[in-house]
Structure formats: structure tokens, C-alpha cells
Design brief:
- The protein is α/β, with parallel strands linked by helices.
- It has two domains: about 170 residues, Rossmann fold, CATH 3.40.50; about 200 residues, Up-down Bundle (Dehydroquinate synthase-like, alpha domain).
- Helix content is about 50%, strand content about 10%.
- It contains 15 helices and eight strands.
- Strand 6 and strand 7 form a beta hairpin.
- It is globular, with a radius of gyration of 20 Å.
- It binds 5,6-dihydroxy-NADP and zinc ion (ZN).
Length: about 375
């Protein structure tokens, strides 16, 4: 058993209409608010009007139009508003992109240089502005972690930022995800599963953490198809929303060596070059990475996954169960409507070498602590296997 720290300072405020509690939650944080949101879904769903009515009398400044795969230019705009108007806290309303961008803004609020510096070098993050979040899409876990992922189009880089950027509180009302379209629901499901695989399919497990991971996977596999078929099914949306929050908060890694997140590292490279939806890239990469990592040594972990998540026969041959588990994973992504090849989404091999070099530079070098250790050529081979 490895030593660990688990620090989860965010208050998760989960359930129907909990947004009504926001003014009480934020009351000691001031009355000058930067409301951040994306391309307009919060206006169509009525959340925007609700917030306006909850905060009558407060000074609300707005930054709208935060893009999926949020761009550093949006963050620069947000930081400018914060500094110009002396904002007290950020109210981020949306999916992972809005929340991530808001975290970078919160860190930029007390930094004199360009907010991109904080992505490149987290040691420059000092004090941060408080953030409150209203989650509208179950996927990233940004509502319950201290990280974000920011894109710099000028340099073709999509990089994680880590720091003291936990939301003070996150409102998680599953009803707000009723309007998430099928393709985004599926991509979100793939993202939650990938956070779990990256924590679960590692060299050494332990009973408790493996159990958390298996429960996460069973939850998504059971509920994502229901939510896609019946977008207003509260229980299915609620189970996905709960699973979202536990994917990246550290709980799934406790007591064991943290493995490099291979699919996430590679997916961020794909998004950096092609601006694809995060969960779509993960659904394509994951089964290929699994197959590439399968050998006599790693087979028992895949086989256990097959037994405990898909109910495979525990007396069957280990390698056969391992192969079946990987096939069932790919079949699940297909069933919920996700593509299985990069060529289906217009990506060819022209940038694979640059991607492998960049991910090695900013993530984990040789990925030697991955389930199967991976060098530069292995990373390129995995990308090629996705074509
Ligand atoms: O912009 P709007 O109009 O709001 O539309 C969004 C966007 O087009 C839409 N949407 C969100 N909620 C909706 C809705 N549409 C209808 N009804 C609703 N209730 O969905 C689209 C995608 O939104 P986005 O926020 O981009 O999706 P997601 O939550 O999947 O976030 C993806 C981003 O998070 C990063 C990803 O790399 C990507 O940049 N990640 C963040 C992590 C973290 N902070 O810990 C970890 C993850 O691994 C991930 O890398
Ligand atoms: Zn992810």
C-alpha cells in the first residue's frame, strides 16, 4: 500500500434545485461576480435567467462564448475583466471547458504576467480568486478537482494546469443535464470511464480502490445508454453526474502508485491539433491502448475488469477474459454512438511524431510507469493503431 494525501475541499451540492442555495453559499464572498459560460446552452435551458433572478442587486459581469477545449484568449479576456472591475468571485456555469477556463482565470487574477505562464509553470500560481460552479454536463470531474486543461492555438498545445483552484462549491443538479445532446452525453460517459481506466488499469491495485473503480465503470455502462435513450431520466442522469465528480478527484488512485494517464496525454495532443471532443478521442484511443498493453503480465488486470464489470466467467482462461473485456469496451463505445477510428473524424498520421514528442516532454517522458511501459515509438504505434 502506497502512502497518499486526499484533499477534497469542494462542497458538492447535489440534487434538484439546489441552485437556490447559491446566494447563501456565496454571501460572504462579495457581490461583484464574474459569470462565465459557453456558447449559449445556459440561456436555452433557463439557468442564466435563474441566476440573474437569484442575484438581483449584485453586480454581475459576464464572459460568454468560452469554447469547448477552452482557449487561452478567452482566459485572457476573463482576467482583464477581473482586474478591471475588482471581481470578488467567479461563477462558472457549464461543462468542463467553462470550469477549466474559470480556474485559469482565478489563478490569473493575482498574477502580473500572461495567464498561459501559469499553465506552463504551475509554481507561478499563488493566491487564486474563489470559484463557484454550476455543472451542466457530466464528464470531466472539473467540478470536484483542482485542475483544468487549456488550449493555446498559437502553439498547438493543450496542457493541464494544476493548483489551488478547487471550486468552493459546485452545484450539481442532474436536471441541468437533461438538455445535453446524445453525442455529448456519450462523450462524457467515455471521459468518466477513461478517468477510471487510467486509475484502474495500473501495475498494482488494492481491493478498495479497485472496487471504487469497478463501481464507477458499472455505473456508467448501466446509465449512459439510458440517459441517451431517455434524456429526461433523472436517475440515470444523477448516477452519471455522481460518477463524473469522482473521476478526477484522486479517490480512484488512493493507496497505489499513480500511473501516467496514457490516453489522456495522447488525447490532449489530438485535441490540440484537431479541436476534437475530448471524450470522442478517448473512446477511440482506449481500446487500442488496452490491446497494446495486453500481455501475459498485464492480462490478470484486464481479466478482473471483465469479471467484475461485465460479469465474465471467473473460471475461464485469463487471456481469453482479458481479450473479451477489451472487445466489450470497444463494443460499448460503439453502442453509445461513438466513433472507433481517427479516420472517421478526419485525422491522419501527419502529426503523430510531433504529438509523441510533445506528450513525452510535458507528461511523463518514457511513460515507464504505465501498465505496459511505453517509449516514443510505442506512443506513435498506438496512434497509428487508431487510424
Ligand atoms: O458552450 P455551451 O453552449 O454551453 O455548449 C456546450 C458545449 O458545446 C455543451 N453543453 C454543456 N452543457 C450542456 C450543453 N448542451 C446542452 N445542454 C447542456 N446542459 O456541450 C459542449 C461541450 O462542453 P464542454 O464543457 O467542452 O464539455 P466537457 O464537460 O466534456 O469538457 C471538456 C473539456 O474538459 C477537459 C477536456 O480536455 C476538454 O477541454 N477536461 C478537464 C478535466 C479536469 N478539469 O479535470 C479532466 C478531463 O480529463 C478533461 O481533459
Ligand atoms: Zn478526461
Amino acid at each position: 500500500m502506497e502512502k497518499f494525501d486526499l484533499y477534497l475541499p469542494t462542497r458538492l451540492v447535489f440534487g434538484k434545485d439546489r441552485i437556490s442555495e447559491l446566494p447563501e453559499l456565496t454571501k460572504s464572498y462579495g457581490r461583484k461576480i464574474l459569470l462565465t459560460y459557453g456558447g449559449g446552452s445556459i440561456k436555452r435551458s433557463g439557468i442564466y435567467d435563474r441566476i440573474k433572478s437569484l442575484y438581483q442587486g449584485a453586480e454581475i459581469f459576464e464572459l460568454s462564448g468560452i469554447e469547448p477545449n477552452p482557449k487561452i484568449d478567452s482566459i485572457r479576456q476573463g482576467v482583464e475583466i477581473i482586474k478591471q472591475h475588482g471581481i470578488d468571485f467567479i461563477l462558472a456555469v457549464g461543462g468542463g471547458s467553462v470550469l477549466d477556463a474559470s480556474k485559469n482565470m482565478a489563478a490569473g487574477a493575482f498574477y502580473d504576467g500572461d495567464p498561459w505562464d501559469l499553465v506552463v509553470d504551475a509554481s507561478k500560481i499563488g493566491r487564486t480568486l474563489p470559484i463557484f460552479a454550476v455543472l451542466t454536463l457530466s464528464a470531466t470531474g472539473s467540478e470536484y478537482d483542482n485542475s483544468g486543461v487549456i488550449t493555446n492555438d498559437a502553439t498547438h498545445e493543450k496542457m493541464p494546469i494544476f493548483g489551488n483552484m478547487w471550486p468552493v462549491a459546485s452545484i450539481c443538479d442532474p436536471q441541468y443535464t437533461f438538455s445535453v445532446p446524445a453525442n455529448q452525453t456519450a462523450a462524457g460517459a467515455a471521459d468518466i470511464m477513461s478517468h477510471t481506466f487510467e486509475s484502474y488499469l495500473v501495475r498494482h491495485g488494492n481491493t478498495l480502490t479497485d472496487g471504487f473503480c469497478e463501481a464507477m465503470l458499472r455505473t456508467v455502462i448501466k446509465n449512459a445508454p439510458v440517459a441517451i435513450r431517455e434524456p429526461h431520466n433523472y436517475e440515470a442522469r444523477a448516477e452519471l453526474m455522481m460518477a463524473s465528480s469522482f473521476g478526477c478527484c484522486g479517490l480512484l488512485n488512493i493507496g497505489r502508485e499513480v500511473s501516467p494517464w496514457v490516453c489522456h496525454g495522447l488525447e490532449h495532443e489530438l485535441s490540440a491539433f484537431y479541436d476534437i471532443t475530448h471524450g470522442v478521442g478517448l473512446a477511440i484511443l482506449t481500446p487500442v491502448w488496452m490491446k497494446y498493453s495486453l500481455n501475459a503480465e498485464t492480462a490478470p488486470r484486464f481479466a478482473n475488469y471483465g469479471i467484475n464489470v461485465f460479469g465474465l466467467d471467473k473460471n475461464a482462461d485469463v487471456m481469453s477474459n482479458a481479450n473479451k473485456a477489451i472487445e466489450l469496451t470497444a463494443a460499448f463505445f460503439k453502442e453509445i454512438g461513438l466513433p472507433s477510428k481517427l479516420s472517421e473524424i478526419g485525422i491522419d498520421d501527419s502529426h503523430f511524431e510531433e504529438m509523441a514528442d510533445h506528450v513525452r516532454k510535458i507528461w511523463f517522458g518514457d511513460f515507464k510507469y504505465a501498465l505496459r511501459p511505453l517509449d516514443r515509438q510505442d506512443l506513435i504505434n498506438i496512434l497509428k493503431g487508431c487510424l
